[in-house]
Amino acid sequence: KARRSVADLLKKTMLGNAVTPVSVSRTALLKEAVVSEEISVAMQAMETISAETPDLGPFFGLPSKVKELMHKLRGIQKLYWQEACLNLECVQQRRNLIYSLPTSGGKTLVAEILILRELLCRRKDCLFILPYISLVQEKQVRGLATFGLELDFMVEEYAGSKGKFPPVKRRNKRSLYIATIEKAHSLVNSLIESSRLDHLGLLVVDELHMLGDGSRGAVIEMTLAKVRHMSEATQIIGMSATLGNIKDLQTFLGAENYTNDFRPFQVQLKEYVKLNDTIYEVDPKEENCFRFSRMLNFKYSSSMQKIDPDHIIALVTEVIPLHSCLVFCPTKKNCENVAGMICKYLKDFLQHREAEKAVLLQELKAGGNGSMCPVLRRTVPYGVAYHHSGLTAEERKLVEEAYSRGVLCLLACTSTLAAGINLPARVILRSPYVATDFLKRSQYKQMVGRAGRAGIDTIGESILILQEKDRSMAKELVCAPMESCYSNLMQDDGKGILSLILSLIGLNVEQFLRGTLLFVQQQQLCVERSLWDTVQRCVATLQEKELITNTATHSPSLQVTRLGRATYKSVDLSYCSVLYKDLLKGLEGLQLSSHLHLVYLVTPYDLVPQCNPDWMVYFRQLQFTLLSASEQKMSAAVGVPESFVARKAAGQTVKKSVDLVAVKRMYLSLVLFSLLRDTNVWAVADRFQLSRGFVQTLLSAASTFCCCVLHFTEELEELWPFKALLLELTRRLSYCVKAELIPLMEVAGVLEKQLYNAGYRTLTHLANADPAVLCGTLEHLYQKQANLMVASAKMLLNEKAAALQEEVDELLTLP
Q: In this protein, which residues make up the domain named Helicase ATP-binding (predicted)?
């Protein structure tokens, strides 16, 4: 309207003065125009529109350099449905948007282009929320760090123990924060508290349907509701799987919806089920949902029939080794068994890419400090591996990269891979179960969505293996409408809404809650209490926990206590009180002769239920008999006397009441304590009879929780001694390597030991390295890996330098 108004008025002015547009200079026109107040107002409106999202070039408003980088770094030359999505009116006008497509449909590309527009054109910061730490690191290092270096913006990781609160305030550069769900919530709280939320121009949520996923869904809902309530300037973009109740999410976010059934390069997905020897194609139009396709062509001996009654070998050998295959299994143990079983009948596969498989075996051995999983040692020569949480992060990465390059042609994996790194393949579902639970429709669609390798296959196939007893339930699974997504703020006795209200004291809480998904769905969820009743009940609970207090005698005037403030800024409300008591008790007799006492205080509470100590290992094989006198004293002080463990190890009944939570926490603490001394995940896992994957998960969770406890103590003066102690412990737990290797560990995915031995001792040295020289120096290092490592080191170095420069500038501007 503003542009049309200016054009019309200028045209009238020119005609009225009998001049042609060609003969009138721009300056003269504007001089003529200012006589009219209407033109002046229209010009201001036009300038505001131009300033909102400046057009910097031909690639969706971005410079040509962005298009060149997309081609160079991603191999992207043409956009498909993304072009229509980016040209939507709501996108052009910066309104909120939810878009949903099948797995591998290229959803992230739209988000990345919008992020780049926000960073480069509008000069605003962006927040990209991803569900897992591994995905955050993948996007930060492999995805966007190189773009940041080329286009001059910062890429900052907020995952695990990484991330600054509040974030560094930058004058000259914009930042892209890539964060896990929990870290994103803390970041938003920090920006609100420092009155900087309006600096956030765009918030992108991947896997938006996780709003319906328990406590993590509640955290996503809190984050989005706060941004919606506190900032009109922040645009929200959500990427989601197809949902049955997408309109609820649209209402919650005030968003429009775009959907498309696109699959890359027209790769058609065909879904099948296998019953006995028969393959049926899934067809919702059929009365029984299944249409006969073919009989399975195989010849099994009687012994082979016993070993493989579901004919998995027959199914996989139809496609491997020329095509890749994923076999989803219900349990971790089943993954390993299936991988081993398949290899027994793949004798002809040993020569296929033999040299590359030998290199992979060497890398797996080097990553395990000389140790290697016996199952992988046996299966990798056949191009087969398993993939589940029992592997270390290094093993998972090596296996994923080898599979994506075709060195491995088959992975037997659990359902977690379906939501992880994009590894397109032909898919076999070993069973319609995850452990003992029947698959959800959304889980099934994620798994089968992996089928079809873009650019190679024209058709993707998925085959679900069924037993007759599961036939009717399977019909619902493959043909039913998509599941709906519901608010989780009221789950776990309302833990989510309690946390939300705690962080909102001082605001109009009832008005705020009207902007939640819970409010949109309260009738569907059969919420018995009114919104105000819920608020009052939550306030009473928070007062009971001494997290808020009423400062007025007559009318309620609520304030957050110091404990309440420390809680909502850093730790889960469900264990804030016990953490506070443990830390206070720890101060009374803090043992600092070793790290054990501090490690115990930051051992995560939420992993305790997963801990089932082997009492003999606990007492005889572990550290208990090797603890120093002060460490044994500390163990007894936290409620774990050596005599108790000795009796349990001997199989005796223990009549004396002992806090089992403290006992299990101490067991996990000993694992962590051993890791800090040994730094060898394999050796510690073997010593404690635990899977190496669990040991690494424990270490990662402890470093994250240590960081949270550090922020918790920063808000409470009485806990001041912990601040300096936990700062160093966080670094130790985050990297768990020898001190000299810590600088190199900041580069995600780095081969720290090989680099150190090759003479690359600092971040600066690595940032200045020539990738080609790196490839020649380090054995089995690919050019792409070297480029990414150097780019990551440069980004981290830039971030540190920029932070120091900001501090200098701030000091120089002080009066």
A: 88-261
